[in-house]
Structures are given as C-alpha cells and as structure tokens.
Design brief:
By secondary structure, the chain is an alpha+beta fold. 43% of the residues lie in helices and 13% in strands. It has one domain.
C-alpha cells in the first residue's frame, strides 16, 4: 500500500457507491485517494484491523493510515473536504451534529439498492484506473 494515500472503502455492488467513487476519481486532482470495495479481501482486512463490523458499516469508510478512520457522514464529509469546490460545503455540513447527519446518511444507505440499483459483481476498473484500486 502506498504511504500518504487515504483509502476509501465502498460497497462494490452499489450503483450509488460506484457513482461516488467515479465522482471522486474525476475530481481527485492531487491523487489523494485509493479505493477498495468492502467485499474485497483487502477491504475486509482493513475493516478487521480497525475492529469495524462490516455488517454494521456497509457503505463508505475513509481510512487515513496511521491517523484515523471515518464512517458514515463523517467519511463522506472528510472526502469532500479534500476536493476543490466541495471543501466549503463539507465544512458547513460538519456544523450539523453527526447524529443528525447520520440519520440522513443511514436512510440513504438503507434504501440505496432500491433507489439506485445494485450490480451483480463489484466494479472492475479500467486499466488506466487500476493503480487507484487496492488488491
């Protein structure tokens, strides 16, 4: 694993989550992020190392190796804080208490398959994007 890269774990079969990953990749001009699906061996290993129950947290996790990890709305806002054009909105939304933000996050997470659909298998990155994904 590369040092100084933040890792986004995402639900690899969720269309919304895959869209989120594509959105981040297009805007990650400073090459800050690496990605792994929650269903992958490396995703499961990273969750286990942090004692995160994958059955409870089943959508987005942001890991800053050696620093911290974030789940739910905190993860999404931390990602947004790294992307030009989204830093301000992330800071503003951080003013809302996390328990309130997570109510909305959990609602979207609960219905994401019904609203956005689900793939039969995890996304396979194109060869030029392969380096951004952890094996």
């Amino acid at each position: 694993m590369e040092e100084n890269k933040k890792i986004i774990l995402f639900d690899g079969v969720c269309n919304l989550c895959n869209g989120f990953v594509q959105f981040i990749i297009k805007r990650d001009k400073e090459d800050v992020f690496r990605f792994a699906s929650l269903q992958s061996d490396i995703g499961q290993k990273l969750l286990s190392e942090r004692h995160i129950d994958g059955s409870v947290i089943d959508s987005v996790v942001l890991i800053e190796p050696g620093v911290a990890y974030y789940v739910k709305s905190d993860a999404a806002l931390q990602v947004g804080a790294q992307i030009t054009g989204y830093r301000t909105i992330s800071r503003v939304l951080y003013l809302i208490p996390s328990n309130l933000r997570d109510i909305v996050y959990d609602l979207i997470a609960r219905y994401r398959y019904a609203w956005f659909g689900k793939k039969d298998a995890c996304m396979i990155p194109t060869p030029d994007l392969r380096a951004k994904f952890l094996d």
